Amino acid sequence: MIISSPCVVSLVWRLEDAQGQLIDELAEPMEFLLGGEDLLPKVEETLLGQSTGFEANLHLEPEDAFGDYHAELVFFESRDIFPPEVSEGMQFEGPPEGSKTPDMPADVVYTVTEVYETHVVLDGNHPLAGLALHLSLKVVDVRAATQEEAEQGSVSDSPLSLIQAAPSDATLH
User: CA angle at residue 122 from 117 to 127, to 5 degrees?
Assistant: First the structure.
């Protein structure tokens, strides 16, 4: 089957930063909806018109991956608004309850990047924002998308994708 939008592709990949440091390796095939919310546009563009067995090595600049790093999305909040077990890597959808910083965007996932005695540092950037990446991928299978998959924009109710954030010490899958 030729890859077209929408369809489901099963991929394996290796994702590295520009210095060749491994960020994520998907050794077992995983399904993604092409034409939905599961894959980066540059990855979809590369896959269109290809078929099972296709391999590619992509260099992704920040604008083709997770965007530039925006220092204005880093905030300091008082330690006392967080639970005692707050730790680096924890994430909050939108500003945490009790936050005092004005104009914190509500539609952002904030990652705790540092915890101090008096304050906590929250970063609203994707963990890979600002990084150039190298993605080596292989198409293992291609199938037609179901109507449900096409309607929800993903092969699952909560898409597992490169678009979602992950703690800095965890892999992306």
Answer: 130
Q: Where are the domains of the chain?
A: 7-66+129-152, 71-123
Peptide bond into 105 cis (omega under 30): no
Start-end of H helices in 60-158 = 147-152
**Ordered mean pLDDT values, 10 residues apiece, the chain (173 residues):** 95 95 95 93 96 97 95 95 94 91 90 96 95 97 94 70 42 37
Tokens of 64: 């083709």
Residue found by looking up tokens 């992306």 in the block: 172
pTM of the model: 0.77
| Beta-bridge partners for 114 | 121
| CATH code of domain 7-66+129-152 | 3.10.50.40
User: Top-level CATH class of 71-123?
Assistant: mainly beta
